[in-house]
Amino acid sequence: MSEDYMYARDGTEDSHNNPANKNKTGKWKACRFILANECCERLAYYGMSTNLVNYLQIRLNQGNVTASNNVTNWSGTCYITPLIGAFLADAYFGRYWIIAIFSIVYCVGMTLLTMTASVEGLNPSCDENGCDPTKSQVVVCFLALYLIALGTGGIKPCVSSFGADQFDANDEAERKKKSSFFNWFYLSINVGALVASSALVWIQMNVGWGWGFGIPAVAMFIAVGSFFSGSRLYRFQKPGGSPITRIFQVLVASIRKSHVNVPHDRTLLYETTDAESNIKGSCKLEHSKTLRFFDKAAVEVEGDHVQGLISPWKLCTVTQVEELKSIIRLLPVWASGIIFSTVYSQMSTMFVLQGNTMDQHMGPNFKIPSASLSLFDTLSVIFWTPVYDRIIVQIARKYTGHERGFTQLQRMGIGLVLSTIAMIVAGILEVIRLNYVRRHNYYDLEYIPMSIFWQVPQYFIVGCAEVFTVIGQVEFFYDQAPDAMRSLCSALALTTVALGNYLSTLLVTIVNNLTTRNGNLGWIPDNMNRGHLDYFYWLLAILSLLNFLVYLWISKSYTYKKVAGRLG
User: Fold this and answer.
1) In 3D, which of 79, 44, 38 has the Cα closest to residue 340?
2) What is the distance, to the nearest Å, from the Cα of residue 19 to the centroid of all Cα atoms in its chain?
3) Residues of the chain below pLDDT 70
4) What was the pLDDT predicted at 4?
5) What is the longest distance spanned by two Cα atoms in the chain?
6) Do residues 371 and 358 make contact, with C-beta atoms less than 8 angstroms apart?
7) CA distance linking residue 508 with residue 506, whole number of Å
8) Structural contact between residues 262 and 79, judged by C-beta atoms closer than 8 angstroms
9) Which site among 102, 183, 267, 276 is 20 to 30 Å from 67 CA-CA?
10) Strand 448-451 relative to strand 125-127: parallel, antiparallel, unpaired?
11) Contact 429, 455 (CB under 8 A)
């Protein structure tokens, strides 16, 4: 085998800083450690977050609105902190070391949370009348939660990109496997979530919170061990320097040259003469005709050279300009994911509160916790992921002629439609539930005789929507991101989840303030039988529909990134 085919041509290196040998590193043999790491890490995360709203209600004595808002605020923070980890990975340390460092922080947070639920003095005192937490106990609990939020910030944006780095984009066979990797990566997430939403939630509600949080903590330590076990097989992408600095260099140079005319001949714009980009770990990008104002940064004029050297704050390469353009083009697609994330966040809040009012029995003796119904979302993902990868793609390919069956934008759009349907189904169930309450005067009954399994369709549809939108979004942001900004763009995609959670908090707060005026109980009172949760679901359905219509316009006008050259 010639050297051209022996080594990866995307600039990746092995653990000894040598060019990555394609036979000895990367591909599925390396990814199995990454997938195992992600499965255990997600088991840890969902093991403590799926039922968190009930923990805050039971052990910290919080009401429906307070507990719901605290969960969505914390969950939102978990998806904002990836911006920190992504910046450090792309700019300075690389994805591997950021995953390793932040995993340790994550383990500390999980250990502390377990202690707050099991160690005397840290866990609240409880009796038959409920729990009475002290301020210091609440502070320690939230300190543990936000350490976990910080820890997950280094893992979330890097691990999917690090896994994709194990496949050479310049090798056709490996490139096809990379597309499948994103499907199986998301499947591994949901295998972990399946255990969390079934066994762990049951343990928390029936055995104790100490065991319920302790097992996820152990899973996190196993995740770290799995990740380090594959070190010698990994391919490592070199950090390309601060992407934020490069973005500001283009902005500053463009503004400085706002009076300069951009030549019609794009070959007159400045670019390095080398075959490779001057940005470490990045391919050259072709010039695009959109956002032409920023092309001014690549127009060479007198004064761009300082003592014979080019000042990057005065003259930027076409590739550097296209990096900024790529980010700007991603923003409208990114924004369209916020409403989807708001819908998704209802599974850990409103779906649980709705289920708390229903009959949770499976047979005469076994009682399923309402938070465990999220396992049907997980089962839906586990079912639809291989079906999509092995069947739907094959069928769609015959009609579309596209290598992946659907374009990534089409795939995401289908998921947005499904999320709207999920809110309609949830709303219809709540109308039926409230009518049942009125008909039998069950207003003050804690559990109405209506099976919780009527919630299964709404969970299942959300799971199907995830397979289309979330996996499509992860793959889309990886593919369309500039090579040296992939962690940052993965983090950008994750911030839609954060903003979706924050938007959910905002909507709940606004709805609660508006609907409780003049002594009214409001849409979401502590006694859900006297509320109107169905109105809240209709509100989300309308917002989802409007969001999809805007998304159609955005997707039609999107310009895909074009690579001018390959690394290696």
Assistant:
1) 79
2) 31
3) 1-5, 10, 275-276, 280-281, 306-307, 564-568
4) 54
5) 86
6) no
7) 6
8) no
9) 102
10) unpaired
11) yes
